[in-house]
Design brief:
The protein has three domains: 68 residues; 266 residues, Type I PLP-dependent aspartate aminotransferase-like (Major domain) (Aspartate Aminotransferase, domain 2), CATH 3.40.640.10; 101 residues, Aspartate Aminotransferase, domain 1 (Alpha-Beta Complex), CATH 3.90.1150. The protein has 14 helices and eleven strands. The strands form two sheets. Strands 1-7-6-5-4-2-3 form a seven-stranded mixed beta sheet, sandwiched between helices. β8 and β9 form a beta hairpin. α9 runs parallel beside α10. It is globular and about 60 Å long. It starts with 12 loop residues before the first helix and ends with a helix. This is Aminotransferase class V-fold PLP-dependent enzyme. Belongs to the group II decarboxylase family. Pfam families: Pyridoxal_deC (PF00282).
Length: 474
Amino acid sequence: MVAKQDGPTGPSAGVVEELLNRTARIATDWLASLDRRPVGESASVDELRARLGGPLPTGPVDPLVVVEELARAAEPGLVAIPSGRYFGFVIGGGLPAAVAADWLTSVWDQCPGFYACGPAASVAEEVAGGWVRELLGLPRTASFAFVTGCQMAHLTCLAAARHQVLRGLGWDVEQRGLAGAPPVRVLLGARRHVSVDRALRFLGIGRDSVRVVPADTDGRIEVPALRRELAVEDVPAIVCAQAGEVNTGAVDDLAGVADAAREAGAWLHVDGAFGLWAAASPAFRHLVAGAERADSWAFDAHKWLNVPYDSGLAFCAHPDAHRAAMTATAGYLVQGGPGHPRDAMDWTPAFSRRARGFAVYAALRSLGRQGVAELVERTCGHARTFAAGLAAVPGCQVLNEVVLNQVLFRFGDDRTTDQVLRRVVDSGEAWMSGTTVGAGRAIRMSVSNWQTSDRDIARALAAVQAAAVGVGRG
């Protein structure tokens, strides 16, 4: 007979309370330091390995000690991404309500795959998904999925597209796979985001099936060229358009693309990673006119909506195709039933995942329709102010028409451009990223953070001015 074993002895309720209170203090101290701290990290990767590394402990370590030492060791390697002076890539900060809801998400530890694992998490997703659909003017019947980010949103949407296109040819890809399947063409703009290509690769659609359509200097797909390409072969097609080119912010002529796709009987997918949020603003909605006519949309919440990483959204105008591409079932699962209109695992590539709906719900409720519009308009205004200010910086050339929140600029040659960028980042006053556009190096500046102020823009401009002068003297 095996003796009964007691369970592990965990920390008492009082210890847990002390740990979480201390963690909250560390977090609030970090946020309070953002305005005065350098935006970039202050420790090298090797230094961080030394601080965080070492042998795995033989026995347990007090959780309070673990958190204190983790925070102390990691702090020099943290980039102040939540700061209003962080302009790298297209990364937002965290709205206070969204951050707080994300903390609760960790504490509640719900799995929103289906209602039985936490109906509150499932219902929060239902409500938040409906709010987003309404806010962005997407079809009321569109299905949706909460995913990690735009990469998985592309995979979700393009899986639905693959299902629908092949089904039209009498091929059940979920049953028969791709071996021997009819050919499918995918038409992409020359300046699309690489995550679209990657999603296609995951879905078994290789480069030989992809046709690249020319784009203009700001990255917009050329609609006449798209029409010509669609007419080349009588083969079912998937067209991928873009709302917000990653360097310039340029938006494809979505109405023109939608017309071309509709006439050819093609599925239209929109990569709206950040730019689709322009639909929430009366001032910028015209830029994405026609987006509502697409068949699927992929975009992020951790960019312009400013919820904590990670948070992406996939919407599909054809729920049957969406569900068919994603659904799974097993005898042990508790799915469906009265009051359960959508088990979330039927719409996402994941079984187990974080309950991202809570943070999105909190962000939308805290901002409201007007607040989201104001966030989009204010950050776009900051981008225009920054671009205008660059005119006073010697040797600086703005490379794009600033239509949204992206500014692209360079200095003379590649070496000078990279030197200016390095000096700006090293100054700690702002953080921007470099890129290669065409044949030359450039600096990308993205204004995506709810905290960015006029003062932050002024500090960033001063940092660029000082860097340019310093490189000129050097």
